[in-house]
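note to self: dont lose this again. the chain is below, predicted strucutre after it. 135 aa total, dont forget to put it in the shared folder this time
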Amino acid sequence: MDFYMNIIPPTATAQMKKVRVVNGKPMFYEPEKVKAAKKLLIRGLIRHAPFEPMEGPLALKVEWRFPKGKSHKDGEWRITRPDTDNLQKLLKDCMTYCGFWKDDAQVVKEEVEKLWADQPGLHITITRLEAKKYG
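---
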């Protein structure tokens, strides 16, 4: 499966969750930026979701293409925050919600890139993998 989402990638990540104490107990919540990022991703992903969740081991490749400014070139690496692992966590949570797979633990191989681009968006490729046999 291979598709492109023509969106401006969100920079809010799952790591941005907040905590407050209510009646002496910690309560975790998502700030509005994280909620908005989830909505944006789910809206873009849902139209590409398979009819049935994929099974077995999967490989996931994602190109995060951020809109470039005057100081960057198309295709240049984005070496600033957010970190790729934090971006991927939110994306995979949204993909699980949309039914791409039953559990994002099925993703056993990942390739992630962050780039500055003339055409912002997310290019996502999911590949079913054969079971590895050792010995």
